[in-house]
Structure formats: C-alpha cells, structure tokens
Write a structure and sequence with these properties.
It comes from Triatoma infestans (Assassin bug). The protein has a 4-stranded mixed β-sheet, covered by helices on one side. The protein has one domain (10-86). The chain has helices at 16-25, 44-48, 50-53, 79-86; strands at 5-9, 33-37, 64-68, 71-72. Helix 1 (16-25) packs parallel to helix 4 (79-86). The chain starts with a strand and ends with a helix. Helices cover 31% and strands 19% of the residues. The protein is built from 4 helices and 4 strands; from the N terminus they run E-H-E-H-H-E-E-H.
C-alpha cells in the first residue's frame, strides 16, 4: 500500500523560489505524491482551507510543507532539504 504524501508550496508558479522547490519534485518519482501551490495569499484555496491558509512563507522565502496523514512538516525553504525530506 502506497501512503499518500502531499506537498504544499507557498506562492505562485511565476515565483522563482516556488519554481525552484517544484523543480526538485521533478527529479525523482515519489509514488502517491500530490503537489499543490497556495497561489496568492487571498486565493480561493487559502480562503476555503484553514490548514492551507496557515501555511505561509518563512522569513520572506517561499516554503514547502510535506504532509503525511494529518501531520505536516515545519516549513522547508531549501530545495535540497525538500529533496532529503522526500528521499529524492
């Protein structure tokens, strides 16, 4: 059985830091991985999902949150740290 993991990345696809975090995910296969970006802080998804609304950039840098089950990591701002977290 493959456990689903979700990666929520703050920011929009046009943001270079967001794009760098997403590029890590393209380097390897992670079965069951769901990836989403939050978009702008006033986006629909942020307003409708309280948990995602709490996922913010860290110290001005876009961040990734890796969620397994009902638990998410602290914000990850480094592409290499994200790769380590996902074993890519």
């Amino acid at each position: 059985m493959v456990l689903t993991q979700k990666v929520v990345i703050t920011g929009t696809l046009e943001n270079s830091e967001t794009s760098e975090l997403i590029s890590v995910l393209r380097k390897g296969l992670v079965p069951g991985l769901i990836v989403m970006t939050t978009g702008e802080p006033d986006s629909f998804v942020c307003h409708k999902n309280g948990a995602i609304n709490k996922m913010k950039p860290l110290n001005g840098r876009q961040a990734a949150y890796v969620c397994r089950g009902h638990t998410c990591t602290l914000p990850i701002t480094s592409p290499s740290d994200l790769a380590i977290q996902l074993n890519i």
